[in-house]
Amino acid sequence: MSKRVLVVDDEPSNRELLIAILEADGLEVGIAEDGTSGIAQVTAFDPDLILLDINMPGTSGLDVCFKLKSDPDTRLIPIVLVTGLSAVEDRVRGLQCGADDFLTKPIERSELVARVRSLISLKSFTDELERAETVLYALARSIEAKDPYTHGHCERLSQYSIKLGVKLGQPEEQLTALRRAGIVHDIGKVAVPDNLLLKRGSLTQEEWKVMREHPVVGERICAPLKSFRLVLPIIRHHHERVDGSGYPDGLKGEQIPVMARVLQIVDVYDALTTQRPYKRAFSVSEALETMANEVSKGWWDPHIFAEFQQMRSRRAGPIALRQPTPIVEYSINFGL
Ligand SMILES: [Fe+2]
Predict the structure, then answer these.
(1) How far is the CA of 34 from the centre of ligand 1 (A)?
(2) pTM of the model
(3) Which residue has the higher pLDDT, 33 or 122?
(4) N or C of the chain: less Cβ packing under 10 Å?
């Protein structure tokens, strides 16, 4: 399938030149004559790369670049800004707007083709990675879907643990890891037989042994994905306890990664406030009281729990899902 390049330029002669070079190189070319229609074309044409003129009447190339790079749905599309030879300031502003590369007018054929080809092949790797992540999320959701009682648990976990992470001042890469972990933390349950996963009574010792394997299995499933580097410790350690009585490694206190301690607070809260085959849904105050008891027993991180409690007391009621979490990219601007 040929790759698609979107050319956004108000000058007909520039467009014609770019189209001629790119089509001769086997690329499919879409065109837009100004910034506003360029943005609209991104959705309609779904380009693998955008060649964007900076100086256009109305919405400038820099504005278009900034808008596309701020949108989780389009920020991975490479953008090459086309500038005048001496426009150093444009380049600086272009970099600030997130541009991936620059081309200088007058356009030189071999340079254009080389830059376009190299950025498009980079984009193919990103697409592949996205596909791999999407498969993992689908698997995680299919496990969740087996149990009607846990419906929406992964999404709630994802959203609420990010909110708690933001409150704790965690950097964006850790928040992204939390979002991903919220969805895939129990992916290892794919190795747990259904009769055990959906059992209404309490588990036997042998059954517990199988169930306790799920963090390790989950870590193994996600390990090949390099972008999940920060997610793996959360998956592995989301059932540890501060006093060392958790699993799989019996880590204590600070040995348990902070993000795993964040996720487990939200995980437990959500389990308590939703109905399960073996229990009714607890009210917010019942759940927080239960967890406070468990904190004093040495199970959960007292500082993180205190922050969570503060967050919950401002908004009573079970965690509400307002909108689906974007699957691949995390945006800090969603509300709960
Ligand atoms: Fe789990």
Answers:
(1) 50
(2) 0.65
(3) 33
(4) N
